[in-house]
């Protein structure tokens, strides 16, 4: 069920009418007070978040529905609210948040692979999913840290874009000679590129049972 059928015409939080008494309003207020005490919020922060929660309830098309984090962010930002994160924390604590925000590591990954050919993009997305969630299929893998994923994709990205520019559309056509020819000379960059590519081709060989000649 959608939170808002369309973005409402926004007004200043000061212009909102008081909310009528409801179980939802009491639940959110109790959650807010408890969260504020636990985290040592100032009275000002508590009051601003209370106003943000009141606004979301008034803008909501279906009272009591779970709230999309991305929609709430957009609405509150348009209204000039500067405590969006704190407001979402309270909604989450109350069990009323659908956290559909794109994680920072996912945004980082997508930025680095933007513009690559579709087959290569799909192969990298498979690698990313295995790195984030792990894999129960043989060969099994545990999830990796966001830091590892960032280092891997940062190290690989220049080579991936270089191969795409040279006409490669799939990683299945990349050979060991291609990798050796294109590895950076700078030691740290070379180390990160190799680590990323070893991870990438290990995952792809295991997932697709590919016969890629690139065996790092």
| CA radius of gyration | 24 Å
Indicate the low-confidence ranges by residue numbers. Answer: 1-13
In whole angstroms, the N-to-C terminal distance is 48 Å
| DSSP helical segment count | 9
Number of strands: 2
Oligomer, anyone? single chain
Strands across the major sheet, in which order?
Answer: 1-2
Question: What would you call the structural class?
Answer: mainly alpha
Query: SSE string, helix = H, strand = E?
Result: HHEHHEHHHHH
- Overall shape: elongated
The helix fraction, in percent, is 55-70%
Written description of the protein model:
With 216 residues, this protein is mainly α. It has two domains: 13-98, no CATH class; 104-208, no CATH class. Helices cover 60% and strands 2% of the residues. It is built from nine helices and two strands. The protein has helices at 23-39, 43-59, 69-78, 84-93, 104-113, 118-133, 146-165, 176-182, 187-208, and strands at residues 67-68, 97-98. The chain has a two-stranded parallel sheet with strand order 1-2. Helix 1 runs antiparallel to helix 2, helix 1 (23-39) crosses helix 4 and helix 5 (104-113) runs parallel beside helix 7 (146-165). The longest helix has 22 residues, at 187-208. The protein starts with 22 loop residues before the first helix and ends in an 8-residue tail after the last helix.
């Amino acid at each position: 069920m959608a939170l808002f059928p369309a973005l409402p015409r926004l007004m200043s939080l000061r212009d909102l009418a008081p909310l009528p008494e409801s179980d939802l309003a009491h639940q959110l207020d109790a959650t807010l007070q408890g969260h504020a005490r636990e985290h040592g919020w100032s009275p000002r922060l508590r009051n601003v978040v209370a106003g943000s929660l009141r606004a979301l309830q008034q803008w909501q098309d279906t009272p009591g529905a779970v709230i999309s984090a991305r929609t709430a962010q957009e609405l509150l930002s348009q209204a000039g609210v500067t405590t969006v994160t704190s407001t979402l924390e309270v909604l989450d604590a109350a069990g009323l948040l659908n956290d559909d925000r794109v994680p920072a590591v996912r945004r980082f990954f997508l930025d680095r692979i933007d513009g690559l050919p579709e087959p290569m993009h799909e192969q990298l997305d498979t690698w990313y999913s295995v790195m984030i969630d792990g894999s129960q299929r043989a060969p099994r893998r545990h999830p990796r840290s966001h830091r590892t994923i960032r280092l891997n994709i940062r190290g690989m990205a220049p080579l991936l874009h270089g191969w795409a520019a040279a006409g490669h559309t799939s990683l299945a056509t990349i050979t060991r000679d291609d990798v050796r020819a294109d590895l950076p000379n700078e030691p740290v960059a070379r180390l990160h590129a190799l680590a990323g590519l070893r991870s990438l081709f290990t995952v792809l060989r295991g997932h697709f049972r590919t016969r890629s000649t690139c065996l790092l």
